[in-house]
Every structure is written in structure tokens, then in C-alpha cells.
Amino acid sequence: MANIIAFLFGLIALVLAVVGFIPFLGWLNWLIILIAGVGAAFGFISEKSSGRNFCFIVMAICAFRLWIGGGII
User: Fold this and answer.
1) CA distances (Å), 44 to each of 20, 52, 53, 70, 73, in order?
2) Model confidence over 10-41: pLDDT tens digits?
3) Integer CA distances (angstroms), 58 to 8, 15, 42, in order
4) What is the DSSP letter of 62?
5) What is the number of other CB atoms lying within 10 angstroms of the CB of residue 24?
6) How many distinct structural domains can be found in the chain?
7) Residues near 70 by beta carbon (within 8 Å), at least 6 away in sequence
8) Model pLDDT, residue 42
9) Which whole-number Å values give the CA distances from 5 to 13, 36, 49, 54, 68, in the listed order?
10) Which of 46, 33, 34 is nearest to 5 (CA)?
């Protein structure tokens, strides 16, 4: 059950990440990393690792976007 919750948090974060790729909305990625981090915490509770790994991938995508935009843009 925790793996499904982690995957849902990751899916919500991924949908929001699409919005965060619009110029001048890069600050949204900070919130998305937090949401995916909560999902990863649920993934650590689970026996399976797919939800946790999915959240880590979403966090990496958002961190890369922040790195390109200088942390804000």
C-alpha cells in the first residue's frame, strides 16, 4: 500500500513538474521536490522500491531544471 501511495505522490509531482518547466515558473520545482520527497519517504516504508525510485527520478528532473534556471527561473 505504501508503494502505491509513493507512486501517486510521484505522479502528482510529475504532472506539476510539467507546469514547472514553463519559463518563470521554475520556483514551483522547489515545491515539487518536497512533494516527491514525501513520496520517497512512503517508498522507504514499502517492501517494493518502484514508487521510491520513481520519486527519486522526479526529484532529479526537477533538480536539473532548477540547476539550469539558476534556482529560481
Assistant:
1) 26, 7, 10, 30, 31
2) 999 999 999 988 888 888 999 999 999 999 99
3) 12, 10, 15
4) H
5) 9
6) 1
7) none
8) 96
9) 12, 11, 12, 12, 30
10) 46
Is residue 13 within 8 Å of 58, Cβ to Cβ? yes
Residue 50 has pLDDT above 90, yes or no: yes
Domain that holds residue 22: 2-69
- Residue 41 CA, chain-centre distance (Å), reads 12
Q: How far apart are CA 36 and CA 31, in angstroms?
A: 9
Residue 46 φ/ψ region, left for φ over 0, alpha for ψ in the -120 to 50 degree band, beta for the rest: beta
Name the helix (H) or strand (E) containing 45.
Answer: helix 28-45
Kindly report the pTM of this predicted structure: 0.90
